[in-house]
Amino acid sequence: MINEFRYTVLMSVYRLVDAQELKAAIDSMLAQTLPPSEIVIVKDGPLTEQLDALLDEYNAQKPSLFKFVPLSENVGLGSAYKAGTDYCTCDYIAIMDCDDYSIPERCEKEAEYFIAHPETDIVGSSVAEFSGNIDNRISFRKMPVSHEECVKFAHSRCPCAHPSTMLKKSALLKAGGYKKCLYAEDYHLYVRMIMNGCIFYNFPDAFVQVRISDNFYERRGGTKYLKHILSCKREFYKMGFYSLFDLIKSSVIHTSVCIMPNSLRALFYKKLLRKAP
Prior knowledge:
The chain has about 280 residues and is an alpha/beta fold. The chain has helices at about 20-30, 50-60, 75-85, 105-115, 145-155, 170-175, 185-195, 225-240, 245-260, 260-275; strands at about 5-15, 40-45, 65-70, 90-95, 100, 120-130, 135-140, 165-170, 200-210.
């Protein structure tokens, strides 16, 4: 039965992505023990010649496997994934970031869980984080496991590691699909899925290795980032997902973290939100 399971890999790439990092990400999906039925890659705005050449090479090698969705301008993650969803023909969609790495068994394990638990709508995992070389693991991000744990977790933080997830396309569309919500497109989607009655599950093991860039902690601070995050939280309150207490508590904590000096914010993430690898 597992051999009959069909899924689409959905990725988005933009011009600042390193070609070698993109190659490693794509190759990790090509190396899955349960191969994808198709790989949809959204070109989020014009790419560099190097990136275009790399994608052309994949298309020449496997023209029946790859689909490319070129966008005339950079629209951001939520809008790019929304555009890509329209080209996904399988009932299940595996999300993959353009600079991360999936272990070979990732999609097979997620597919097996869907087969054994057909009521589930989204499956993810914990993630290992690395810097530079993929063997240089620096931290482990443990995600909530059961549906109940995911829902509880979502009242303060995003309940799934986005590049680890595989989800039912029907559940994604029923919840309204991806929407533009800068810095929180995945969190916004998951809250809407929870409110729509979707069932969540995360494997406790790390099926994906996530790249931590040099400016990872810096990008999670500042007034621009904070403005968009607080706007998202207010939406959760208006939607009826956040209680007033959730809104105040979450907003105060996030504001405190955003206005910290970068060195202190990095320490906060490493010591309180992560574990040793």
